[in-house]
């Protein structure tokens, strides 16, 4: 496939949304860690919090190297920020009004929602690196390679936690830590296989 020149304004928009997603992610993980009553999950989210802080630094370096303004606001970035604030507010509300196990489950669902957007951002950055041509792509490639495996881990593992916590809440046998954790899943195919294998782990 022939590489093409991307739309510079949309590349900037993607990077602004990616940075906002990571910055909001720090706050979401801070709130989620406070909701975790499962020791394994608390450790997992604490690790993800530190990795997300690193991702913020990686993106700030991208902005610096590309000569972009990391403080620039756009309608899209503002929406991403408001969604992040809403997820933090939902976690806090659950902490204040729900039983600890239910608050933990709310936090898990909020993390999954945040990581879904985060994972898509980095997938798009990876697609850009692979299929586009132009200046600055080497900077994006370095950032993508530094972050990609973390993003896969965050999304697939937390989806597993949310599923198993829901199953536990329903009064059914759950696999905790989830199969994704046990099998060290890093891909969508691996996540599907881990979910299919869960019945053998009960």
Please provide a written account of the structure.
The chain has 202 residues and is an all-alpha fold. The protein contains seven helices and no strands. The radius of gyration is 18 Å and the shape is globular.
Secondary-structure map with pairings?
Blueprint: H1 8-35, H2 39-66, H3 75-97, H4 100-131, H5 137-169, H6 179-182, H7 188-197
Task: Summarize the structure in short.
The protein is an all-alpha fold.
- SSE ordering: HHHHHHH
Q: Which blocks of ≥5 consecutive residues have pLDDT under 50?
A: none
Radius of gyration: 18 Å
Proportion of β residues? under 5%
What class, by secondary structure content? mainly alpha
Annotation keywords:
202 residues; mainly alpha; 7 helices; 0% strand
